[in-house]
Design goal:
With about 290 residues, this protein is an alpha+beta fold. Among the domains are: about 80 residues, Phosphorylase Kinase, domain 1 (2-Layer Sandwich); about 110 residues, Transferase(Phosphotransferase) domain 1 (Transferase(Phosphotransferase), domain 1, Orthogonal Bundle). It contains 6 helices and 9 strands, in the order H-H-E-E-E-H-E-E-H-H-E-E-E-E-H. A 5-stranded antiparallel beta sheet has the order 1-2-3-5-4, with helices on one face. The chain has a two-stranded antiparallel sheet with strand order 6-9. It is elongated. The N terminus is likely disordered. Pfam families: Pkinase.
Length: about 290
């Protein structure tokens, strides 16, 4: 039977036979190469979520937006005409319009056919001009026409003051009606105008008068010479014309300071005036 000392000796003798292990062992492992085919998939890629800061909503001021639109509109409208406006009260050195021929003359001015120098389409307009010192009637007419807008009333596009020779000319820019006036049509048709056409002319004139009377305007000079014919499509008018009321130089606004109580105003063409007005009667809508 072995003693405890013998067992320990035998174990010590056996340990002496085993070589010491290295302090830093290196293991070599040979593996067969394996190729992994990994298909790129959106699910396999973790996308980084970009967080954007919240946009600050700007409160738009309605009044400021309207002001900017009005400003742009005014500038664009101003550029459509000549830029030769001087600082002496808005008088132009050179007119923006080229007059081609004389259309007619009256007691308060001359009417020319003209086109704008800045209009590439060369739209024809009727330019009613007079010396600025004698243009009180044209200025009054322009003021009245700018407040009216009806297919049965001649249209006014504005006015111009320009130097011409040694003086200055005040001009109204008006709609041009190439179909002459009713007086010329009557003269050209000595045999008479068809009844149906007469009715159509009357309807147009009454429609125009009804419109201006609703706006407290009394024309005071309705006559064939002041009724202009504007050509229209025959599909809409059998006679091919639309009648428009023109020449508001003697017109009055009922209720204005000029109108007063409506008495003492003798104005118009004698041949077409109501007899009671010659004696200073009341000027009212029925006068037209």
């Amino acid at each position: 039977m072995e003693t405890e000392s013998e067992i320990s000796d035998s174990s010590s003798s056996n340990n002496s036979m085993i070589p010491p292990l290295p302090q830093n062992p290196i293991f070599t492992v040979k593996l067969s190469p394996i190729i992994l085919h990994v298909r790129r998939c959106s699910k396999n890629i973790k996308k980084k979520k970009r967080t954007r800061p919240p946009l600050k909503k700007k409160k738009k001021s309605f009044s400021s937006s309207v002001k900017s639109i009005i400003g742009v509109s005014f500038k664009s409208a101003a550029q459509k005409h000549s830029t030769t406006v001087t600082r002496d009260g808005g008088v132009k050195k050179i007119s923006s319009w080229v007059k081609s021929r004389l259309l007619g003359e009256g007691a308060y001015g001359s009417v020319y056919l003209a086109t704008s120098k800045d209009d590439i389409y060369k739209t024809e307009r009727a330019i009613k001009s007079a010396d600025v010192l004698k243009a009180w009637s044209l200025m009054h007419e322009g003021k009245i026409l700018r407040s009216l807008q009806s297919p049965f009333v001649i249209r006014c596009y504005g006015h111009e003051i320009a130097r011409e020779g040694t003086g200055h000319q005040y001009s109204l820019i008006l709609e041009y009606c190439s179909g002459q006036c009713l007086a010329d049509l009557i003269e050209d048709n000595q045999g008479g105008i068809p009844e149906f056409d007469v009715k159509q002319f009357a309807i147009d004139v009454l429609s125009g008068l009804s419109y201006i009377h609703r706006r407290n305007i009394i024309h005071c000079d309705i006559k064939p010479d002041n009724l202009l014919l504007s050509p229209v499509d025959h599909r809409f008018r059998s006679n091919g014309f639309l009648t428009k009321i023109a020449d508001f130089g003697l017109s009055m606004e009922k209720g204005s300071n000029e109108y007063g109580n409506g008495r003492g105003h003798v104005r118009g063409t004698t041949r077409y005036m109501a007899p009671e007005l010659i004696g200073g009667g009341l000027v009212d809508f029925v006068y037209d």
